[in-house]
Design a protein that fits this description.
Layout (H helix, E strand, L loop, with lengths): L1 H21 L8 E8 L2 E7 L2 E6 L9 E7 L3 E2 L3 H8 L11 E13 L2 E10 L2 E14 L2 E11 L19 E10 L12 E3 L1
Antiparallel strand pairs: 1-2, 1-10, 2-5, 3-4, 3-11, 4-6, 6-7, 7-8, 8-9, 9-10
Amino acid sequence: MKNILRNLLRAIVVALGAVALSAGAAAPQSEISFLASQEGTALQGTFNDFVANVKFDPAHPDVGMVLVSVDVRSVNTGTPAANDLIRSADFFDANTFPQATFEASEFHVKDAGHYIAKGAFTLKGHTVMVPVAFVTTATPQGRWFDGSFTVSRTSIKVGQGEWADTSTLDDAVQIRFHILQENPRIDASDSSPTYRK
């Protein structure tokens, strides 16, 4: 069984490579993805349904806030069978815990153009505090945020049963994001810009 699933997950990499090539000319859009590793083979996926509520101005990071909610049932690895595996109780348990969230209101300047947000990441009913490194770029579309953070999958009970062995499936999982804030504001009384995908 494990060999079958291992081959299935390795097939994801090929499928995602094809998707990446075909999407190369697409218009820029917000994206949240994850990257894991199984015995040295990269495993990637994205989410088709999420809401990002962002308020951040580099000149006033002390009044920033972010709340991101992801529908984990919308996971897309490139193959339906792999999607079903990731949604299963051993991984996201998506039927019981359909939402993953990240919430932060503490921001620090790391150096010019680089920032750290300290916040709470919740998945499968488990919450861990994580530092999130990101950069921000102003464009005619608005302000883009690009960054990532790493979480221990065993700390949030992702990858149970035969997948609990970290020598088979690495414990570290990287979460990446590319999110647009269309109308930056710094007044805490203002409504926060929201990106809905």
